Each structure stands twice: as structure tokens, then as C-alpha cells.
Amino acid sequence: MSLVNRILPANANNDYRGSPIAFYGLCLFAAVFTFRSLVHYFKEDGGANSIATIITFPGSPDPDQVLYLAFSLWGSQQIITLCILLLVLVRYRTLIPFMLLMLVLEQVLRIGAGAMHPLTPEYFESRPPGVRANVPLLGIALLLLALSLRDLGRVTVGRASGQASPGVDEG
Predict the structure, then answer these.
(1) What is the pLDDT of residues 156-168, one digit of tens each?
(2) Measuring CA to CA, which residue among 84, 91, 93 is closest to residue 18?
């Protein structure tokens, strides 16, 4: 099977043949994404001050409200991405390599956005978790992507019944 067909299979189903490590790694990302997206969407400051430690700005009308709206809108996009990720994990596991490729692309774009629009230390009380995590998450996502593309030569998740769990050989 070609690399393109492993990333974009002709049929999306649960016949995932990559490494179970990639599956479980993506499950961990989903857990982190659940927390991140819900905080950005529902928290009053969108996590801008309370988690990212971005300073508050003086002014009238309150300029921080624009920042909070942007963080909340970002959270809404993250919730949509999370729903797609959960759908892949539950129903369409052959798309795991595609989701990991999207995760790699997200990390590359986040690093790029930070380079194009750098916020210097005077904008933060401390370095935000997202800034600290971008490069390590990129490395982890690349590793998981490589593992997901390995064809282990066996069915590692449910075939027709969808009942087998990752790492269980049905043959």
C-alpha cells in the first residue's frame, strides 16, 4: 500500500493496521485537546490570563475582551477538531495517520505563527504552556505518525465487527 493510501485510504473504517502505540498516543492527545478546547471556549478569559499568563491591558472599552473573544473562537474551532478526532478514534481508525499528519501540520503552523508574530516576555507573566510544548509535541506527533504508517501485517483493531481492541490479533 502506498504512503498516500495509508494517509488517505480509499475506505475509511476501523481496519487500522498501524502501531497500537500511535492509536494510544492519539488518545492521549485527544484527552489534552478536550481540556484545552473546553478551557478556551468556556473559561471567562479563554485561558489567556489564567493559563497563558498574558498580561491584562488597560483601556476603555476593555481591550482584553477582544483577546477573550479570540481565545473563545479558537476554542470553538478546537472543539470541532476534537469531534472529528473522536470520530476517527471510535469509528474510522484507518484515518489515524491522516489525523496525526494534521496534528504535525498544526504544530508546524503554531511554531510558524509564533515566529511571524512573536510576543516578547513583557506580554507574559511566565512563558505560556503552549509555547513550551510546541516543539516537543511536534516531535511526538512525527514519531506517532511514523508508527501509524507501519503496516504490522495484522488487523490491530476491529474488522467487520469492530469489537477487537488495538494490539489484538484476530487471526
Answers:
(1) 454 444 444 445 4
(2) 93
